[in-house]
């Protein structure tokens, strides 16, 4: 059971990191004005938007806090389950 929880949390962690990297690449490097027209970005966006809504109270650095929160959850899941 703890392996399933660990892999699920790892999957969501990598989705959040992938969204941040794609956002950086599309907006900063390639200067795409609207990244939501990219189907890969839309996949990452839709699958992680609920996490960003949960952490909506943070003024900045949401991605960092989401990744740290998931890492802490993974550590607790592996250690205590």
Structure in words:
The chain is an all-alpha fold and 81 residues long. The protein has helices spanning 2-29, 39-54, 62-80. It contains three helices and no strands. The model has no long low-confidence stretch (mean pLDDT 94).
Helical content (DSSP H or I, runs of 4+): over 70%
Share in β-strands:
under 5%
Cα-to-Cα separation, first versus last residue = 8 Å
Mean pLDDT: 94
- Which spans have pLDDT < 50 for at least 5 consecutive residues? none
Question: What is the alpha-carbon Rg in Å?
Answer: 14 Å
Count of helices? 3
- Summing up helix and strand content along with how strands pair, one would put the structural category as mainly alpha
**How do the SSEs run, as a string of H and E?**
HHH
Largest sheet: none
The 3D shape can be described as elongated
Number of strands: 0
